[in-house]
């Protein structure tokens, strides 16, 4: 209970670092990170027509637009020279193995929801290229995060894109480091999603790996999925299996030698033959 009380005190002292609604997002201070879209000269604006959406997709777009309007993140405009179409895509979940109509086990990716995307390809063509072009938002995120936490990276925090983990050798050390990171978030207007925050845990899944005081281990749920994958019947199946298994190659001694018979099947003009030999 004493440890829980200390954690609550730190969270209350830095309550501005945690966002409960979309309207809590203030925008990161431009002094730390700012992105400009520079246009090429003499490039004519493009107004693209909207593609047809089914009723389910239309509802997803409607809810997303209303949510952004209410949060003040967008506003209506009727005379824009640029118009880009929106598209709705499924959010990918984990991999499971299901049985099809022929009683065959096939790997299937679950769909956990829908996400609205905007097709900015025409805008990208008109954008002046630099080291951080518009399509590579992961580079922008990483540059922004490093600008904010550059002096504490590897000392008390590890960062990957917009995800980070705060660590410490003991509860008090971890709590002190958490306070430093949250205070930095408040100073720079970086707001964290409360639904994705986990505080003072002794182990957890980070980037598909189990992290604990024992070190880095494989995620048992992913291993279970791999073990239940059906035998591949074509080159695509071989490539998919090697992709799944290769994710944990650092934990498998002589992985390249073990996987060589399968890798040989990916060579052009090699006859596909998958059996016990």
From TrEMBL:
Residues 136-211 form the Reverse transcriptase domain. It comes from the Eukaryota. Pfam families: RVT_1. InterPro entries: DNA/RNA_pol_sf, Rev_trsase/Diguanyl_cyclase, RT_dom, Viral_Replic_Matur_Polypro. This is Retrovirus-related Pol polyprotein from transposon opus. It comes from Cajanus cajan (Pigeon pea).
């Amino acid at each position: 209970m004493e440890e829980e009380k200390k954690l609550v005190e730190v969270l209350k002292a830095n309550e501005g670092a945690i966002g409960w609604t979309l309207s809590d997002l203030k925008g990161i201070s431009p002094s730390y990170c700012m992105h400009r879209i520079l246009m090429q000269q003499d490039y004519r604006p493009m107004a693209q027509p909207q593609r047809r959406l089914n009723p389910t997709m239309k509802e997803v777009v409607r809810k997303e637009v209303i949510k952004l309007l209410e949060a003040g993140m967008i506003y209506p405009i009727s005379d824009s020279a640029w118009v880009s179409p929106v598209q709705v895509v499924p959010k990918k979940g984990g991999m499971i193995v299901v049985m099809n109509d022929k009683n065959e086990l096939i790997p299937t990716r679950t769909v956990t929801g829908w996400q609205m995307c905007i097709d900015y390809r025409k805008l990208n063509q008109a954008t002046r290229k630099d080291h951080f072009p518009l399509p590579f938002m992961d580079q922008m995120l990483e540059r922004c995060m490093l600008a904010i936490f550059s002096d504490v990276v590897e000392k008390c925090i590890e960062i990957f894109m917009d995800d980070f983990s705060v660590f410490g050798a003991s509860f008090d050390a971890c709590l002190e480091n958490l306070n430093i990171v949250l205070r930095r978030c408040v100073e720079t207007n970086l707001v964290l999603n409360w639904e994705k925050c986990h505080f003072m845990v002794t182990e957890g899944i980070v980037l598909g790996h189990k992290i604990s005081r024992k070190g880095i281990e494989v995620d048992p749920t992913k291993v279970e999925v791999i073990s239940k994958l059906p035998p591949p019947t074509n080159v695509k199946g071989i490539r998919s299996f090697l992709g799944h298994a290769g994710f944990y190659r650092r934990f498998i001694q002589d992985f390249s030698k073990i996987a060589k018979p399968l890798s040989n099947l990916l060579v052009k003009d090699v006859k596909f033959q998958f059996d016990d030999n």
